[in-house]
User: What shape does this take?
Amino acid sequence: MSGVRRWILFGVAATMFFACGCGRRRNTIVIGSKNFPEQAILGELLAQHIESRTGLRVERRFYLSGTYICHQALLAGRIDMYVEYTGTALTAILKETPKGDPQAVFERVRNEYARRFGLIVEPPLGFNDSFAIVVRGDDARRYGIHTISEAAKYTPSWRAGFGYEFMERPDGYDGLAKAYGLKFAGTPRVMDLGLLYRALLDHQVDIVAGNTTDGQLVTGSFAVLDDDKHYFPPYQAVPIVRNEVLRQHPAIATALTELAGKISDQDMQRMNYEVVGEHKDTAVVVRAFLHSKHLD
Assistant: This one.
């Protein structure tokens, strides 16, 4: 699909979404998510916990699309909250240069979202979902590579596969290629995120950009290359909420505070694997997790 056609379809989808005149009852909270399984898991986690703690009705609008659609939906009041990642907020929404210190990035995002958008950035949920540059485990062992820098000497003969958003965002492909001097055998393939690991196993591509909490990484079939030049900023998962919603329902802030720091990298990776690798129902996986943390 050409870039022009893709943006036309993106615009049509956005127009249809924001033109929807769906009414909302006073005691209904709308939670959104981006269009990949981890986001649906996080959206469901917020939904179940808020329902349990506040008695409010929660409407789920998951798989909306990428960062920009979710952000605009929040600003337009079509959703009341969703989970974002601090590094994504810093670079894709605030258009700032990636920085390395997690606390500094969080505070910058929190302050600027309040100042520019009137949005509240809640404390991090506990895990950092950074981009992961991934190759087949067999290839990593064959070439003896552990870092992106070590892989750079081999990438001219490798085919790359990346998600659309990774190709477009300022902390994505262009900056990574420049930082590490990466060259590939042809233009990287733009692929659906759900197909990246299958394409890697099937030798359709040789290197992909996934995420450090992807469930597929627990199988041992893949190797995550160390970002030895620290190109990627921290990507702490944080709920972002409309200020008006917290004023009307202060119990939501208390519920979200209870979730702060409760999800480790391993917790998120395991939930992703249960949903994607074992095909378990997202709501069931979330319910079991909340129970294990005594949050049900």
In short: The first strand starts at residue 28 and ends at 32. Residues 1-24 have pLDDT under 50 and may be disordered. The chain has 14 helices and ten strands. Strands lie at 28-32, 57-61, 81-85, 119-121, 131-136, 160-162, 189-190, 207-211, 222-225, 237-242.
